[in-house]
Amino acid sequence: MTVPTPHPTPSLTSPLHARHLALGAKLADFGGWSMPLEYAGGGVIAEHTAVRQGVGLFDVSHLGTGTVRGPGAAAFVDRCLTNDLGRISPGQAQYTLCCLPDGDPRAGGVVDDLIAYLHDVDDVLLVPNAANAAEVLGRLAAAAPEGVSVTDRHTEVAVLALQGPRSAEVLAAVGLPGSLDYMSFDRTPGTGDVTVCRTGYTGEHGYELLVEADRAGELWDALLAAGEAEQIRPCGLGARDTLRTEMGYPLHGHELSVDITPVQARAGWAVGWRKPEFWGREALLAEREAGPARQLWGLRAPGRGIPRPGMAVLDGTGAQVGEVTSGTFSPTLRAGIALALLDTAAQPAPGAELAVDVRGRTSPVEVVKPPFVEPHVR
């Protein structure tokens, strides 16, 4: 499991903080927010398994929320972020990246990855990561044309994630729409003030629910009550991390950063390469054309070893050919797995045998192309 990075500022708390304490949650700092790492009565492995086999409920209210509104708001966002909003229609969401602009010494590096909800051509909702929300929204606000407003709603909106093969049944039991296409969302009079989106960060069929912060407790309680028949579990961010690592999903600060580009992280699918404009476009086009010096791969440990972030990856001669970015024990595979940036000059390929340096001792690993576990998001 990736250990949360210490944050220098005092922790903020979710509107569900008191409920987490009542459930015996172990709390940790995530991007300046005190959030559940795991709950009493099972821990990470039990919560992970609940999502893979049944249903789990996460509080991810540390994620940022911001609106971009005004004439041509969607076109403005499209000129800034990497993905092509023209590929989707109102009522759909899109994974995208905010990169450093051309002219910056680290142009093309990733400021953050986020989800854009396209309400209409004049209204876009953005959900960035906790630690980077202010930076992303600040950059957009500084670049916004006259008439377009960028509003930070981080503490006003709570975000819940209902994930797992039984998640649709739980949504139906509380009267929320579950029959949505992947990466589509619904906010109709029938759903009140809850926006339901068919997405998530676990690799399973699931939903993310956006609700006004003062209604989050009501929704959390209703979902847990409705999910009792499905053996629902409240799940902490520890299980969210093991689940996303099994899928090979990137985490900002690990597989993406201002020093790690989408090309290196195999996130080029989230770049609208044919668009005439987005931040970092020329640098990324040049890197794609030349080929990246390093690229993201998966590693699987055949023995008991568990690769951890920061460990050096070694070839058969003992030379360093990369570094682990995320590493954990996979509850599904019962094995250590990792994501790592490997030098392309080393010509890594699936099945290749490498090793990781565990405090001066080498531990064997096999190169694999993620995901480690078959996804069921669609």
Features:
378 residues; alpha+beta; six-stranded mixed beta sheet; six-stranded antiparallel β-barrel; 8 helices; 20% helix; 30% strand; globular; disordered N terminus
Protein architecture, described:
- The chain has helices at residues 17-22, 43-53, 73-80, 133-143, 167-173, 216-226, 237-247, 281-290; strands spanning 12-13, 26-30, 33-38, 56-59, 66-69, 92-99, 110-120, 123-127, 149-152, 157-163, 185-186, 195-197, 206-212, 233-235, 294-300, 312-314, 320-330, 335-343, 353-358, 361-368.
- It is of the alpha+beta class.
- Strand 2 (26-30) and strand 3 (33-38) form a beta hairpin.
Instruction: State the strand order across the main sheet.
Output: 11-12-13-10-4-14
| Binned strand content | 25-35%
**What about the largest sheet?**
6 strands, mixed
As a whole number of angstroms, the C-alpha radius of gyration is 20 Å
Number of helices: 8
Choose one word for the global shape. Answer: globular
The H-and-E topology, N to C, reads as: EHEEHEEHEEEHEEHEEEHEHHEEEEEE
Task: Return residue spans where pLDDT drops below 50 for at least 5 consecutive residues.
Answer: 2-8
Task: Offer a quick outline of the entry.
20% of the residues lie in helices and 30% in strands. The chain has 378 residues and is α+β, with helices and mostly antiparallel strands.
Lay out the secondary structure.
Blueprint (H helix, E strand, L loop, with lengths): L11 E2 L3 H6 L3 E5 L2 E6 L4 H11 L2 E4 L6 E4 L3 H8 L11 E8 L10 E11 L2 E5 L5 H11 L5 E4 L4 E7 L3 H7 L11 E2 L8 E3 L8 E7 L3 H11 L6 E3 L1 H11 L33 H10 L3 E7 L11 E3 L5 E11 L4 E9 L9 E6 L2 E8 L10
Parallel strand pairs: 1-3, 4-14
Antiparallel strand pairs: 2-3, 4-10, 5-8, 5-9, 6-7, 7-8, 10-13, 11-12, 12-13, 15-18, 15-20, 16-17, 16-19, 17-18, 19-20
Helix pairs in contact: 2-7
